[in-house]
Structure formats: C-alpha cells, structure tokens
C-alpha cells in the first residue's frame, strides 16, 4: 500500500475559474486517495468560490490577506501577487508555525512560483511540485506604443523571477502539451527539464444525472462560459451570432455566462464593452447576477449575460445548450469544453492551443479560425438548423465517452500522485536551486525596500487620518514631547490595541 502523504497546497486566490477548479479537483482527488490535504490561500470569498472550498470537504485556510492589497490603484498586480504569496508563506511558516504542525511531506504550488525558493530553503526535505497552467509573462497584457515598452521593461525582473523560481521546483507538471511547449520556449531554464502533462479533469460521476432539458421553450441556446476578460475574446461569439440570418437568430438565445468579480476592473470593463458591442450590432440584451426564474428573460432578448453563475445553474445551462462556443485564443487547456462534452453538447472552439487536445474535429465538435467569424457563424447556423439532430446526438455521445475515458478526476489524481512520488525521490531532485543573477538580487532588494516603505507610510497615514485620538494627541505635543515622539508613542499604543 502506498505511503500516505501530507500535501500542502499554495494557491493565490481561491475564487471561481479554471485554475481554481483544477486545484479543487486535485485536492479532492488526492484526499480521496487517502492523503491529508490542506490548502493555503491569500483570499477565498465564501460567496465567490467552489462548493468544496466552503462546505468542509477541504481544509481551506486563508492567511496573508492583511498587508498587501491585490493591486495598487488597479495596477502592479504581479508585484502584489508575489508579495502576497511571500507574506502567506512567512505567516504560516515563520509566524504561527502552522506548516510545522501539519508536518508536510509535499508542497503543491500552482499559478505563481515566487515562493518556491523560500519554501525550499525553509523545508529542505519536502518535495515541491509546481503545476504550471501557463507562463505568467505570456498572460500579461502587452499594451501598445510607449506603454508596451514600459510594460516590457517593468516585466523584466518578474520574468526572471518566474523562470528562476519555477526551475527551483523539484518537479514540474503542465496542463497540456501546448503549455509544455510554450514553457520551454519562454522559460529558458526549463528547456531541458522533463515536463509531464497532467490534464485537468471533470467530475464524471455527474454524467448520469445530466438530463437534456430546455430552459426556454421554443428557443435554442448557444452558450459561452468564460471569465469576463478581454483575452477570452467572447466578443467573437457576439459577432458571429449577429451574422446569423434573422430568421434563425430570432428563435435562438446567446447566453454568455462566467466568472465575474466586481473587485476586478477588467471583469467590469469587459462586461460593459460586450454590452456596448451588442448595442452596436443591434442585439437586444440583459444582464442578471443570478437567474432563479428563466421566465424573467424577455422573449425579445438576443444576448443574455449571466455573472458568476453557481455550479448548479451552469449545469442547467449546459443541459439546455445546443452548442458550446469556446473563443479564447491559444488557451492553454480549457476545462469548459470538457464540461460541455460530458453534458453531450457539441463544442465549437478555436483551432489552436488546448482545444486541439480535447475537441476532435467532426466527432465531438468543430475547430475553427478565430480570425474568421464567418466560419463560426456557419457552424452556429448548422447547429440551429432543424435538419441534422442525428449528427448532434452522435457528437454528444462521442464527447461524453471521450471525457469519461481520458479526463476523469481519478485519472488526474493518479497522475498527480505519481508525480508527487517522483519528487519524493532524492535522486530526482536538483541538488540546488538555479543560481539567481546578481543584478536580480539588487532589483529584488531595492524593490522590496521601496515597497515596504511605501506600504508602511500608507499604513501609518491611514492611522493618522482615521484615528481621531491620535490626531488629538499629536496636536497636544506642547505638553512636553515633540510631534515625532508623540506619533511614535501613540502609534505604538494603537498597534497594540489592533493586535
């Protein structure tokens, strides 16, 4: 019998998205194999996370969410993410010693690798497996003109940190062959590393419970499920839908559902831009944050926006859809096409990136060029036509069989377990982390000092502005102490009260 492990996960923000779904599935799958699993994250909103993260299925602990914000005025997201992860590790390893109490045998780190060298330094005998969803430097928005040059310069130290810290992991797995190729291309330190593929999964136990049922009688649903982010290119689905013949479109409904967080400016802006696009194409639309009753949607609505749909509603939408439209360019994997195929829904996806490894052209769906919206319109028209139901049923059955055979939670957990076993073997571990360049040390130290001073100053300023007692005390410095002495004294007292 395999030795039981104590596996500690580190994930930046345990919200709702493909990366978060993978982390939850991986944790549940490894736990089902008899291992002890604990997840540390900097943020997990019970109202905006997957069920397993809030119902007690998993041991999720939120730490390190008090010092560094997710962004600074909507900017510097990668800097804040790195500082938040380092803060998280320092809290659980050096402040309250939670990690020591858990006696970890393995660390599972994903999405952000900055803390890997620190974990390796603090826990020399614990194997570290890094799950790479996609290189962060390729996910960063590039901008145009002078802004692009500034962003490129700004990203130089962070790209170097990503390459160095990822290479410091004892083992690295990727979510697709496409991602593996991109990782080796942009992260030079990993060009000779063995990157194993561990595909994300879907819960196939729900397959028998999914019954095809229309949510809107007399209307066929074209469904898009993605986060409200510009890079997901949901606008393509709107443009292709608008090109449908009016006689076909009037009996159809384009439903755009997905992850939405009002704290994230990009989510808000993308939703607004999609509404403006629908207006420009003369497509009537409406938006709902929840949909307790489908009948509230007007019969005249062409595009329905649903924000942060819960899993139950998502499954209901899939069960009613005629076609799943998956628009991202060069998506590193994409879990939604698998969920659609499990629900026996044909998939129309981009003919690049991860969908090439999940969707089979002509058997489980169609792969089309994102630069040719007319091709997407043609597929939509074909699906909405009443003349080919047998073809759609066959594609649905083929999709479900493919998912059950290749992308189950059990298969993913088994492959991850095997990868964790490999990093337990000292002969497979690099003897020491790759050497960090001297210039990068200077950048990190200077940036760290500058950010720390800025945060400390901001923190102190808030105390001064919000605490009337302190202000009064500062004004009363004439009693014998200087202003500086009074501020230090009163700040110390406030901090003690806060702690």
From TrEMBL:
Belongs to the glycosyltransferase group 1 family. It is found in: Endoplasmic reticulum membrane. It is an enzyme of class 2 (transferase). It comes from Aureobasidium subglaciale (strain EXF-2481). Residues 16-205 form the Glycosyltransferase subfamily 4-like N-terminal domain. Its EC number is 2.4.1.132, 2.4.1.257. Keywords: Endoplasmic reticulum, Glycosyltransferase, Membrane, Transferase, Transmembrane, Transmembrane helix. This is Alpha-1,3/1,6-mannosyltransferase ALG2. The chain crosses the membrane at residues 439-465. Mannosylates Man(2)GlcNAc(2)-dolichol diphosphate and Man(1)GlcNAc(2)-dolichol diphosphate to form Man(3)GlcNAc(2)-dolichol diphosphate. Residues 217-288, 302-402 form the Glycosyl transferase family domain. Pathway: Protein modification; protein glycosylation. Pfam families: Glyco_transf_4, Glycos_transf_1. The lineage of its organism: Eukaryota, Fungi, Dikarya, Ascomycota, Pezizomycotina. Signal peptide: none annotated. CDD domains: GT4_ALG2-like. InterPro entries: ALG2, Glyco_trans_1, Glyco_trans_4-like_N. It catalyses: an alpha-D-Man-(1->3)-beta-D-Man-(1->4)-beta-D-GlcNAc-(1->4)-alpha-D-GlcNAc-diphospho-di-trans,poly-cis-dolichol + GDP-alpha-D-mannose = an alpha-D-Man-(1->3)-[alpha-D-Man-(1->6)]-beta-D-Man-(1->4)-beta-D-GlcNAc-(1->4)-alpha-D-GlcNAc-diphospho-di-trans,poly-cis-dolichol + GDP + H(+); a beta-D-Man-(1->4)-beta-D-GlcNAc-(1->4)-alpha-D-GlcNAc-diphospho-di-trans,poly-cis-dolichol + GDP-alpha-D-mannose = an alpha-D-Man-(1->3)-beta-D-Man-(1->4)-beta-D-GlcNAc-(1->4)-alpha-D-GlcNAc-diphospho-di-trans,poly-cis-dolichol + GDP + H(+). GO terms for molecular function: GDP-Man:Man(1)GlcNAc(2)-PP-Dol alpha-1,3-mannosyltransferase activity; GDP-Man:Man(2)GlcNAc(2)-PP-Dol alpha-1,6-mannosyltransferase activity. GO terms for cellular component: endoplasmic reticulum membrane.
